[in-house]
Amino acid sequence: MPQPPKRPRKPTPAAVKTAPSKGELHPRNRHQGRYDFPALIKASPELGDFVISNPYGKPSIDFANPAAVKVFNRALLAQYYGIRHWDIPDGYLCPPIPGRADYLHNLADLLASDNDGQIPHGEKVRALDIGVGANCIYPLIGRCEYGWQFMGTDIASEALASARAIVAANPQLAGGVELRQQANAEHIFLGLLQAQEYVDLSLCNPPFHSSAAEATSGSTRKWRNLGKLDPKRKLPVLNFGGQAAELWCPGGEAAFLKRMASESAQVAEQVLWFSSLVSKGSNVELLQGWLAKAGAIEVRILGMSQGQKQSRLVAWTFKNAEERSTWSKSRWR
């Protein structure tokens, strides 16, 4: 697609901020309200072996049990998204699906803002998932909800092998998910896109911690806060799992976001919107500063919430409103 000539970059304006009510999912999120366990068990009968009663007498699962979390995710993917075959190697990140779906719905709204309020559907929209992981969650949900094309990238060959097995086992994903390995662990965007290759958005769950010890400490604090730290019971280190690259990197989330901001400027002509989840609120202001130095034109901060967990989605672009409108008309219509 022809690109406009480069021009001097202006300082980033004040970010646009939005935030849902605490615990409120996106209106299009399929996971509103209580889980329908009979329907989930019908979609994935193995879940029945893990259902328990919570303190209020309602059906639930033991979220401290990694095996239960994995089977629960499998049932959610089967019931809501038609994914009949999904598995991940032991020890890999098993993500909370409602929150991952929220990220994608917010990105759909972001694209609509450059498309006369209409969400673009179908394979003309191409998304780049940085750190697709063994679970391949974003491509699975995004293909089902919006029919977008996905390119999932990762530095770990085992994670990519798992993601490829998931894609191959679900025929409806054929031709819609491409997986590439980032050969240089020091890079995020550099070395991934070929010349004249364009994507409409990028998304990422950055590693939150600076070390394995910090990740373990964070999990212990979570159990204590939830009142589940029972000395008589051996709890997993991480109930949702996670390998090193999924959970921590030198410098933690802040260092990763700084590198992402810098590298995004180097591929700015090939990507319409960049985005990332930001776990720590203090890192949002840091990221804004790095994006200003990189020359981003617009930054948007979207509050995201699932239960008691609060997060932020930060999106940025190096294209002005006119350029984004031209991009949408030439690629999506």
TrEMBL record:
- Biased composition, Basic residues: where in the chain? 1-10
EC no. given is 2.1.1.181
Q: Which GO terms describe its cellular component?
A: cytoplasm
Spell out the molecular function terms from Gene Ontology. 23S rRNA (adenine(1618)-N(6))-methyltransferase activity
What does the record give as the reaction this protein catalyses? Answer: adenosine(1618) in 23S rRNA + S-adenosyl-L-methionine = N(6)-methyladenosine(1618) in 23S rRNA + S-adenosyl-L-homocysteine + H(+)
Keywords, sorted A to Z? Cytoplasm, Methyltransferase, rRNA processing, S-adenosyl-L-methionine, Transferase
- Location in the cell: Cytoplasm
Primary location group: cytoplasm
Q: Which top EC class is named for this enzyme in its record?
A: transferase
Q: For the region Disordered, what residue ranges are annotated?
A: 1-31
* Record-linked Gene3D superfamilies: Vaccinia Virus protein VP39
User: What is the similarity comment for this entry?
Assistant: Belongs to the methyltransferase superfamily. METTL16/RlmF family.
Q: What is this protein called?
A: Ribosomal RNA large subunit methyltransferase F
* Organism taxonomic ancestry: Bacteria, Pseudomonadati, Pseudomonadota, Gammaproteobacteria, Pseudomonadales
